[in-house]
Amino acid sequence: AHATGVIGWSSFEVFGIEPDERTVIVGTLGKALGTFGAFVAGSGVLREYLINRCRSFIFTTALPPSIACQTLKNLEKVEERQKKLLELIEFFKKLTGIETESAIFPFVVGGEREAVELSKYLFKKGFFVPAIRPPTVKESRLRITITAEHSKEELKELWEMIKNFKKTGEPSQRGCHS
Question: Average pLDDT of the chain?
Fold first, then answer.
């Protein structure tokens, strides 16, 4: 779900895969492409098979034309936005020391209460950073998601607030935007 428009143009180069007639690509339109729906791409044989045999496809409705048009429009911007996103991911990795292979940065907070408290505080300051808690994960954490719409300044400000909270148990008041 997170690879379309984020990991390489087609993701094949990332994983060193040479696509052929057996290749099936499944993706979502609801993340980097900013609309909704999903797709399956493959050979003509696969296409015909799915059209004629896949009950969930046969009994569903097509995307509204406006969504299809917006998706195509958004595809025109994918490479530019992807480049900016990858730059921001590298910037945030260096800033935080958190290693990740995606735009999602897990930050282990400790207890459930601390994770929820910090998440609520950050939300009040303009950052949507949800707390993820057990049993979803072993230890409570924040899920920091970088997008191409962020700026380096916003990411620095976010990280300062999180670091201060980790040190003092109190969110940083310095530089907070409301």
Answer: 88
pTM: 0.75
Map 57-86 to HEC letters. Answer: HHCCCCCCHHHHHHHHHHHCCHHHHHHHHH
* Structural domains of the chain ordered from first start: 12-76 (no CATH), 79-168 (3.90.1150.10)
Question: In the block, which residue shows the tokens 């480049």?
Answer: 83
| CA-to-CA dists, residue 90 to 84, 86, 101, 106, 157, angstroms | 10, 6, 10, 15, 16
Distances (CA, A) of 6 to 39, 47, 48, 117: 16, 25, 29, 30
- For 20, the 3-state DSSP assignment is coil
DSSP 143: E
Q: Any residues with CB less than 8 A from the CB of 34 and at least 6 apart, and which? A: 70, 74
**Could you tell me the end-to-end alpha-carbon distance of the chain, in angstroms, rounded to an integer?**
32
Does the pLDDT of residue 154 top 80, yes or no? yes
Q: The tokens of 106 are what?
A: 């897990």
